[in-house]
User: What shape does this take?
Amino acid sequence: MSKIYMLGDGTHASPLKRLQCRDEDRELQSLLEKNHHLLPSDQIDPENPPQWLLIKREMPVTDPATGIERWFIDFLFVDHMAIPTLVECKRCNDTRSRREVIAQMLEYAANGHHYWTAADLQAKAQEVAGGAEQLDAWITRNRGGAGDAAEFFNAVIANLRKATMRLIFFLEESPNELCSLVDFLNGQLKETEVLLVEARLYESANGRIVVPWLFGYTEEARVAKRESRAQAAGRVSERGEAAFAAAIDDAGLGSEVRSAIRILLEAWPTIGINATRWSYGVNAILVVPTVLPKRGLFQVGRNGDIQFYFGYWNPDSYADIGPEQIRLKHEFADGLRGLFGVQFTDKQLRGFPSIKAAQWSGKVEEFVALIKKIVP
Assistant: This one.
């Protein structure tokens, strides 16, 4: 990148003094934590610029060999399209900001999705956002009111598992050999974006100036990845009852699971604004309007798993949760414990735990009876 000049009297251009980063944590990581827009969305995708949501700074990654948290990613973001974005910050004088950092980032990407869950990511994002309502507001604002938090983070996990993600190196200067490696990887990887963001620091009379610039992303690579993702999104993101039914038929589920899902769905037809009913987005969500108009009791995913929405029935997070809603949640959890033998921890009763299709499908009639017993 060329020098940055300041026009003093409108005609005389003076070069700004370049600042060297001395403390990676204080100068690069803290800078990005407070200024997410330094990841230049308009350069990454001019047609649909990513809107950033920070999930966690220093996100732990488990070592599959030992089962303990061995590594930490500097930042884990997600954008409004539910695409996870892993960011590593490196200063120019750090010699690791070359080949080693590529291997390190790929290791994070390869292992993170094995141990992160949708509920865990949602809880971390909620803490950073300042609460459940603030997180819901971000999702509503940036996704056009589409979906809820649980559904959004299910999509994040689905993208992680199929390697639809971004790997970003946030540097004060990009070494040529790292640029070459990133350019090569970005041309070879179909779903994963590998990017360099160079954030050069300059000093002016009024303070510091940061100039973020994107490297390693050709227009050809951008178009190819956009087309690939559009095709995938067309298959998995269609919404509504018909799309959900078609996805269940195409999911390769056993006949017992498919039959159990049909029994469950038919127990509450999608009619009556004040009746217990199914709401169809990407997944099927059971809504109980007389108790909680805006949020669901649980969802059935396209893989047949059920995710319980206990986190939406938490009085610490939502003002519309009172004694009646708390009683219903605990009665429902106790019934599930007796029916399926699941033991919910206090943390799970404040979150979004799941049970597998095989775990509930053999007792679907009893499950329906339990729900009809506890909901009005």
